[in-house]
């Protein structure tokens, strides 16, 4: 009689707690997820990445943003080290601001299936124009408090 392998035995180990190299691209990056210990409770999780970097796909020059990711988890949480490595994998990735912001939100939705997610990408000026990009998935549960993302509009040198 053969036994089915346990799910933990077939899944690759988490990146957490061990040395991991920076992924060469967002496509190669692994986003680990862990079970939500409060899956029956609606609450907000926020990640802020104030030093996000990618490359302009035309000039190859660096682009900088302050990202704020808010989500109401379902059965899964995104593991923070894996998220950090995923976001860092954009450092050598050429894409427009809109593409980076929306792609990050969509990948998170695919991987962790939250009840609700929004991402705000507050991009610093290139060519004299700051670009802010916002994307959302799902409906915010009524009983969840969502504070302002706290990133002021760009005002130049004040």
TrEMBL record:
Substrate binds at residues 78-80, 97-98. Pathway: tRNA modification; tRNA-queuosine biosynthesis. Residues 1-35 are annotated as: Disordered. HAMAP family: QueF_type1. GO terms for molecular function: preQ1 synthase activity. It comes from Afipia carboxidovorans (strain ATCC 49405 / DSM 1227 / KCTC 32145 / OM5) (Oligotropha carboxidovorans). Keywords: Cytoplasm, NADP, Oxidoreductase, Queuosine biosynthesis. It catalyses: 7-aminomethyl-7-carbaguanine + 2 NADP(+) = 7-cyano-7-carbaguanine + 2 NADPH + 3 H(+). The active site is at 56 (thioimide intermediate), 63 (proton donor). One of its GO terms (cellular component) is cytoplasm. It is found in: Cytoplasm. Catalyzes the NADPH-dependent reduction of 7-cyano-7-deazaguanine (preQ0) to 7-aminomethyl-7-deazaguanine (preQ1). The lineage of its organism: Bacteria, Pseudomonadati, Pseudomonadota, Alphaproteobacteria, Hyphomicrobiales. This is NADPH-dependent 7-cyano-7-deazaguanine reductase. GO terms for biological process: tRNA queuosine(34) biosynthetic process. InterPro entries: GTP-CH-I_C/QueF (IPR043133), NADPH_dep_7-cyano-7-deazaG_red (IPR050084), QueF (IPR029500), QueF_type1 (IPR016856). PANTHER family: NADPH-DEPENDENT 7-CYANO-7-DEAZAGUANINE REDUCTASE (PTHR34354). Belongs to the GTP cyclohydrolase I family. QueF type 1 subfamily. It is an enzyme of class 1 (oxidoreductase). Its EC number is 1.7.1.13. The keyword NADP applies.
């Amino acid at each position: 009689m053969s036994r089915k392998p346990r799910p933990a035995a077939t899944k690759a180990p988490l990146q957490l707690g061990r040395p991991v190299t920076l992924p060469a691209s967002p496509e190669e990056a692994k986003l680990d997820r862990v079970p939500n210990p409060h899956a029956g409770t609606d609450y907000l999780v926020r990640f802020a990445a104030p030093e996000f970097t990618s490359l302009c796909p035309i000039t190859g020059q660096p682009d900088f943003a302050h990202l704020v990711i808010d989500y109401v988890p379902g059965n899964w949480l995104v593991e923070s080290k894996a998220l950090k490595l995923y976001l860092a994998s954009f450092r050598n990735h050429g894409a427009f601001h809109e593409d980076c912001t929306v792609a990050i939100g969509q990948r998170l939705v695919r991987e962790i299936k939250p009840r609700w997610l929004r991402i705000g990408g507050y991009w610093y000026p290139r060519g004299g124009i700051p670009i802010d990009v916002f994307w959302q998935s799902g409906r915010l549960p009524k009983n969840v408090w969502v504070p302002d993302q706290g990133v002021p509009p760009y005002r130049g040198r004040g």
